[in-house]
Amino acid sequence: MIDRILKALKNNNVSIYRLRDTVTESTEVFFVKKKLDTRRIANTETVSVTVYREFEKDGVKFLGDANFSVEPSMSEEIIDSKIKKAFMSAGFVTNKAYDLAEKLVSDVVEVESNIADIPVDEALGKMVEALYRNDTDSNTFINSAELFLTKHKSRVMTGNGVDVAWIQYGVNGEYVCQCKTPEDVETYASFDYDNLECEQLAEKVKETLAMTRDRSVAVANPVNGKADIVLPNRYAEEVLNYYLVQTDAFYNFAGYFENKVGSFVQGKEEEISGDRITMDLLPVAPFNGDGIKMIERSGIEKGVMKTYQGALRFCRYLNVPAVGAYSKYRIASGDMSFEDMKKQKGLYIVNFSDFQLDPVVGCFRGEIRLAYYNDGEKIVPVTGGSVNGSIIEAQKSIRLSKERQETTTISGPKAILLKDVSVAGC
Amino acid sequence: MKKLKHSEYILAIKPVLKKLLDAVLAKYPYASILAVDSMGNMYSSSKTGVSIAEIPRYANCGFVIKAYDGNAYGEYSFNDVSEEMIPEILKKLEEAMSLKNVAKGGLSLCEYKQMTDEPCTFSDSSEYEIAPWEMGDDKIIAKLTELKDALLATDKRIINAAARINYQKYTKLFLSKNKDMIQTNMWVEAYLTIAAKEGETVRNNYYPFSGRCGFEIMDEMQKGVKKASEVVIELLSAEQIVPGTYTCVCNPHVTGMIVHEAFGHGAEMDMFVKDRAIAQQYIGKRVASDLVTMHDSGNAVSQTGTYFFDDEGVLATDTVIIDKGILKTGMSDAQSAMYLGTEPTGNGKRESYKRKAYTRMTNTYFEAGKDKVEDMIASVDYGFLLENPSSGMEDPKNWGIQMMVDMAREIKDGKLTGKVFSPCILSGYVPDLLESISMMSDTVELGGSGACGKGYKEFVKVSDGGPYIKAQIRLG
What we know:
The complex is a heterodimer.
Chain A: H1 2-11, E1 17-32, E2 35-57, E3 60-70, H2 76-90, E4 109-110, H3 120-132, E5 140-158, E6 163-179, E7 185-193, H4 198-216, E8 219-220, E9 225-232, H5 233-246, H6 249-254, E10 279-282, E11 297-301, E12 304-305, H7 312-317, E13 328-331, H8 338-343, E14 346-357, E15 363-374, E16 379-383, E17 386-390, H9 391-394, E18 399-400, E19 404-406, E20 410-413, E21 415-424
Parallel strand pairs in A: 4-6, 8-16, 9-14, 13-20
Antiparallel strand pairs in A: 1-2, 1-5, 2-3, 5-6, 6-7, 9-21, 10-11, 10-13, 11-12, 14-15, 15-16, 15-17, 17-21, 18-21, 19-20
Helix pairs in contact in A: 1-2, 3-4
Chain B: E1 2-3, H1 8-25, E2 30-46, E3 49-54, E4 60-68, E5 73-78, H2 86-97, E6 108-109, E7 120-125, E8 127-128, H3 132-135, H4 137-152, E9 158-176, E10 179-198, E11 201-211, H5 218-221, H6 224-236, E12 244-250, H7 252-264, H8 270-273, E13 294-297, E14 318-323, E15 326-327, H9 334-340, E16 348-349, E17 358-359, E18 363-366, H10 373-378, E19 382-393, E20 400-412, E21 415-421, E22 424-429, H11 430-435, E23 439-440, E24 445-447, E25 452-454, E26 457-460, E27 463-466, E28 469-475
Parallel strand pairs in B: 7-10, 12-19, 18-27
Antiparallel strand pairs in B: 1-8, 2-3, 2-4, 2-9, 4-5, 9-10, 10-11, 12-28, 13-14, 13-18, 14-15, 16-17, 19-20, 20-21, 20-22, 22-28, 23-28, 24-27, 25-26
């Protein structure tokens, strides 16, 4: 398919372009209780073609672009007409001229994964076994589950001479645990691994089942007003994402932030009484979609920004190195243990219905499905109510746990402690 | 108004798909093929640049075969087909069907009956006034740039503004032994987004537009400029709300999110199959004030969730979910309906041909009441007018509410004080909120911007709405 597109681009005298070819093989199983409900395979190939056009208007140089996708069954005539239309559209895209990624050629890089070592159905079977290994209680069990095993072959080519390719495997999915009595409740959980992490998945399910049992006996959340909260795992990650956005070239170019390399990006330095953020940027693939080689970099060191990351165009506009957009990072641990965090008076919140941080406004919000309330004397599971806080305030005294979490998107503290967060009880 | 034309590609490839279907039916007692050819583009003009780009989620072309092996169903999704490829496609389908072997060690296979396959031949398409491909990209970008400049000029505290419009035009062909159905639809969504900064405080606001229409919707966008700017400037001085339960008047966008998140997801009957929806136990019982009548309708209103038939070849219906406060039924896809022994309601939807079908909402809304909005506000001693919902999450099992709202306008002694609070989170128990509804305005408004997920994935187009409602709501 690539050759047909290259030929059509040449025929249309389009010399500045970017092709992203993605071949996806997905094998999927869907369970209801302990029964396999549906099974699926999805095999697709799509090439996303971006056509660039240089032009000048009122003495200003522009580099416009427009894109379209090509599917294997498209005819030469359709591809040709899509190129013509995109080239014309690119002429209306008045983005100031910038340099695209430099030439880079590489052999196909196969990202190491044990998923590649065995047949798909066997790999899927191992994960299914791990998923259900701890589902042994008739009162608390897996209600439903979905499991996806994927292989992605990616190739990026540009008119500048970029030609890189890589292969990645993954296994991801979600499951819902249910506890029937005394209260009929459920907990949603998801997972995403680069390898067949059977032991991790089995352990995660075990924890979710225990969490669901606790929700079943939880009482109405009595906390109203300000409280200290401990957020573990993905909720800690959601808050820490704020610092990745602080380094994002787009937000700094657009004026949302005015961060510079060397500036303190954790509020006002003199107000920090808690842990200072140190964040390294980690690659999730050998190359990005522009064909830039992705490597580990220092993003923030003790609250001081070291590197801008983000979309190529905005890095160019800021006149900083275009290192690519990062979605994974490593945050250094603090010196407080997870156990000590949980001993603090306040709420240790293990499950929200949804929890979101708005990185521009700095607010984080969520409705509590299950928390453990420590009133200083006893710890009880509670449910209901919500938190509504501001990272701009909370970062002054944020504490990071010693213990770590490792996922496909973060290597960081297992939990964070935030002080004086607004909580609405039931 | 003009009618959309069906995809030429789909029409051309149909004979091959019929041969493929015959080959599948030679091996399996039931099979269907859904073919999709969809184009979806985004146009935007902002302070940081201009963009004309395809939206991957909305622009794709491919096929999915669903087959029944006498026990259960399996699927194969692909995007390359020709007569020569039929044996290869059959082999991949067999591979998918053989995945039943992973059900071992205490796991078993769901047993389903064979799908009923009532004969149906259908062809229709939606109407529009101005198609994006007729308007031309230059005119679209010029209009958006004019709107963006107007937004930026409203106040010196505005740091960024954008005008954006997206559309999807899709043709879907559904083939089974007895069905031959084709439809083409187009929906459009547009946004004015704006950000303001004062000192260290940054606030965002957006103003949405949507419809089952063409780019004639751009004429409405100018009306949103003043309001979008006023709101973001007001938000700069917003305070944090004191948590509590308040008398609230919700505008139709907030009502829509309550309808969709708090109740709609819980009435999706694939959740009944899994025993994940408490609503199943409340059929025939009161779940809301008698002022409340709620619909999910793929065909009774014209919005982004409207279509002629769903992704399982079931014609769209108008389902009354709640009638005067009493829960009547849920909505369902064909497979869930078969499992539950109910009639399918035309709610089987896929994110794309690459994904599985689930029960999904179409256009979900409360019917209008009889009150005037000004009377509703005047009736509040102390409370809030809620506007600008930003997101929400369903809890069908326990009917918990989680909704984010970006604007709560204070009402004191029946009048808006001008004081605003943001952000706010709505929480509580769904029936408590619905049973507390005491007034409803006399007009209904639906909106279909954004996308609806099933949990955290499977995003599809829907719309929701209703009238202004007055209710007791927990805010934090």
